[in-house]
Predict the structure.
Amino acid sequence: MKVLISLSSFGAAETGRHGQLWCTDLAQQAGADGAEVRGELLRDASTELPALAGRAAVYSSPEGLWTAQGELDEAALARGVQAAQVLRAPRLKMSIGGFSPSSHASLHRLKALLQAAPQVELVIENDQTATAGTLAAIQAFFAAQAQAGLDLGMTFDMGNWHWQGECPLQAAQALAPYVRYVHCKGVQRLPAKWVAVPLADSVAPWRAVLRALPADVPHAIEYPLVGDDLVTVTREQVAFIRAAREAA
């Protein structure tokens, strides 16, 4: 089981100060098996993506696959695929955006577009929105894509379910057959919002969620990694995820 670092874990300020190449080096020094490059944190994609080529396991696009009107956003998909290809990243992570019943007809077009870029595997993440982050929405999408002859996998974000009041354990039990990548994220509730925290500090039943998910897929840290010695902090968290997965 590979442990990756989503580079957003180092925070927008730290990543913005040093760049994602520096963050990728740090992750490697800490013993991680790879990194997830974040599109929303790129300062200059035209120079950063080529510099990161061969060093990313996943490219995370901040764009949704379907517009708010339910139309397939071919341009967003093309941008994501192109970035993944420049990175030589085997996986592209996106959300379904505004996918709705009216979007079903466009799944055949999506299939054709993905067949034209076979070196990039698209994985769908549950985000924190009502259209792309509820169990009902994700289940409806995976049922529709299967009917259309697609075989897409899922990025299961353990923490994001809370933003829509969903039970992560129920989601894990329902969606496990689709899961090909796991975002490890603990959560705590502040008076006005949920926040991401390390798994060990989470109020969620993270051990039970891990047990419900496949063990042989990559698991990424996607919670804040902070401290004066970031390499040591990151190394400790990588070891924690490995041990937690083995114990689950």
User: Anything to note?
Assistant: The chain has a mean pLDDT of 97. The chain has nine helices and ten strands.
